[in-house]
Amino acid sequence: MSFEERILWDDVEGEAVTTIYGLLMCYVLADYKISFKEHCKDRVKQRHISYDEILDTLRHGKLIEVHFLGNRCTVLLRKQRHNKAEDLIVVFNPVIGQVVSVYINASNDNHDTLREELYNKDLDVQKRLEQCIKNSR
User: Fold this and answer.
1) Which of 29, 32, 79, 116 is at a distance of 20 to 30 A from 56, taking alpha carbons?
2) pTM exceeds 0.85 for this model
């Protein structure tokens, strides 16, 4: 059984930063086809989020976390919504170009309750990314 590994974006360094941005840009700027998991489609309806808003968050949002579970990589991006009181969080798999989920967070949420023990500052993000890319083929 796999366990989830997480790292805050501010702790990601070196080649991994370039790799993640490169993967993201392939989908959001080069017009590669982005897919949406059924779970995401359900959340879009439930939370009244538009697909345009998701794409805008992918293009202009701030990267906040990277997660690995088995051979799956996801990044979390955050962008303030038009009403300014909420942020849209997009969970995106940059290896296969798939939006996994979306949710709303308060814009003033400074993560005071963040459980730092769930994050590994020493995670070898580049190595994990390479494994995910290799196993996605």
Assistant:
1) 116
2) yes
If you write DSSP's letter for every residue of 26-76 in order, what string do you get?
A: HHHTS-PPPEE-HHHHHHHHHHT--HHHHHHHHHHPEEEEEEEETTEEEEE
Cα 114 to Cα 76: distance, rounded to the nearest angstrom: 15
DSSP code at position 116: G
Nearest-5° Cα angle at 50, 46 to 55: 130
* pLDDT at residue 1 tops 60: no
**Pairing assessment for the beta strands 86-93 and 62-69 based on DSSP bridges:** unpaired
pLDDT tens-digit map of 58-89: 999 999 999 999 999 999 999 998 877 999 99
Tens of pLDDT, residue by residue over 2-43, are 678 999 999 999 999 999 999 998 888 776 789 999 999 999
- Dist. CA 106–CA 126, nearest whole Å: 31
Task: Give me 21's structure tokens.
Answer: 């941005």
Beta bridge partners of 89: 78, 103
C-alpha–C-alpha distance, residues 57 and 33, integer Å: 16
